[in-house]
Amino acid sequence: MSTQQYIQTKKELMMHLEAERLKSFENWPFDESCRCTPAKLAKAGFYSCATENEPDAVQCFMCFKELDGWEPEDDPWQEHKNHSPSCPFLQLTQPLESMTCEQVLKLEMTRNKNKSKKILDKTLNEFMDTVSGVRDEMKNFTEIVPSPMHSSDSEKCEMESTPVFGDEAFCMICPFCRHEIITAISYNAGTLCWFLCGLMIFLGLWLGCCLVPFYVNAVKDCVHSCPNCWQILGRFNRL
Ligand SMILES: [Zn+2]
Ligand SMILES: [Zn+2]
What we know:
By secondary structure, the chain is α+β, with helices and mostly antiparallel strands. It contains 7 helices and 8 strands. InterPro entries: Baculoviral_IAP (IPR051190), BIR_rpt (IPR001370), LITAF (IPR006629).
């Protein structure tokens, strides 16, 4: 057990004692003319867990119920009953000090069960907050990413019912990702390129000129792929 855990456990055990709970209300924001006095709060099982933002935050040492936003006329015992009706502390018929060892141990088991539940709830809430944060971020992300359809293509493109792959990009439904896309074209040196190259050599244009066809897209074959999933959809061979 770390020092911090030891201090926390010691504090929790001390809060079993009404006198110790009373000591925790050093800077209680209500005066003695109110119903929610430190004495009544301590008697009802509460100790102060005030923070800068919540100076009237209290917690029950048994059920770990946290309450704040007190009104001067609030009765601590009644509030405890309203917000945590099954708290074992409220069911006690005798003071802790006069209980048998067995009774105290039973009570302590219930208290630890409540503590575990409180920790579990807190962890679960934090986890759900993280999940919802990630979900929001993902939503923003999908809003930023442009749709597979090029945004500059304002005019509605006509969908080909049976795609014919030519030398121009066109609209189709990608059979792989099912998105409506405009095909992305890349150029490959095909038969026509090699034919032109051979023809140039035959004509005596072999000093580098024969390589020109490999740099001219207009004589190369076109490969159409999906700009969304990058699957190859088809090709257009010029020869
Ligand atoms: Zn309680
Ligand atoms: Zn696709």
